[in-house]
Amino acid sequence: MMSRKLKIGITCYPTLGGSGVVATELGKLLAERGHEIHFITHSIPFRLGQFHKNIFYHEVEVNQYYVFRYPPYDLSLASKMAQVAAMQNLDLLHVHYAVPHAVCAFLAKQMMNGSGLKTVTTLHGTDITVLAQDESLKSLIRLAINESDAVTAVSKDLIRETRELMDITRDIDLTYNFVDKRVYYPRNTGTMRSDYALPQEKILMHISNFRPVKRVSDVIDIFRRVNEHVPSKLLLVGEGPELSRIQFQIQEMGLESRVHFLGKQEDVAQIISLADLLLLPSEKESFGLVALEAMGCGVPTIGSNAGGIPELVAHEQTGFLSAVGDTADMARNAVRLLTNEAMYEQFREACIKRSCEEFCNDRITLEYEKIYYRVLGLE
Ligand code: GMT
Question: Residue ranges of the Glycosyl transferase family domain (predicted)?
């Protein structure tokens, strides 16, 4: 029974964020395992890559009727989900992010009444920690969660927070995020390193969407402190609303010559492999996918102990975690690690081992598969 290949519709935010990356990578891995995957999104997922015979893409188009002041994307998505489910005879819809995707899946299931279509919702963090704080959305999110045939969340901390904030008692499966170990391993960076740093300098890196929650000013402060003891360079990867303020802060501190802005980058594994340390001092992080991407490449994380980060980064083994905002402690830990070669080597090996054993693609894909078979009664 377990080997029946499934037809799965996947909806995610295709153009940004860790949730889109995880959803797309999961779809690709499920397709490799013989399942038929139908992405139902407004644009083609940015990490989809090469053609694969088991992967299909269905574009959600929003009609601009003159009566609409706000064209209803959510309703178009729900209709498209139902249409694809009927046309392709889907077994289930797996939606990433509660708003609006889980709500749309609920509507699609109602439209497909009696067809046996199941829905699985994966919560990624901000859908609960930010959006569910809005009382006007809370009941809708609660409905979508309660009506899903299975709900998963990417950390224990997110499960706890969902229960507390949403007053939800139903089962929520823990499915950690993962990295594909065929992609995330310590890459040979050749001469690339010398483009950014001198041989005696260390490279610190921060990758994010530069939103306030990432506390990028803390990144700069940690770097300033580290640089007083260990000659180093800071590589900033990504773009977002805080970027211009950060540029100003760097100028004010006179650090321009020591910081490189790399903008948005596609080949994250190659870039992270340049780093000696990843900095992730976030205010809140349900998981912190970038710390896992770094871990896969053998790069320890110095960061905060917010949200789900401690479930991923093993404190004193694959990195060091401090209280949010304690940049002095974060800098002390960074210096400790960068100036002790034996300790650094130990951390590096622990990173590679932990990412392969605890967060590897094979393991997490099987966990999702098991959930699909369970909701379909095919266990
Ligand atoms: O806030 C972000 O960085 C984007 C957001 C998203 O929707 O992709 O990230 C959330 O989901 C990621 C994938 O599961 C997690 O790794 C991030 O920790 C989480 N962000 C927050 O909780 C702030």
Answer: 199-352
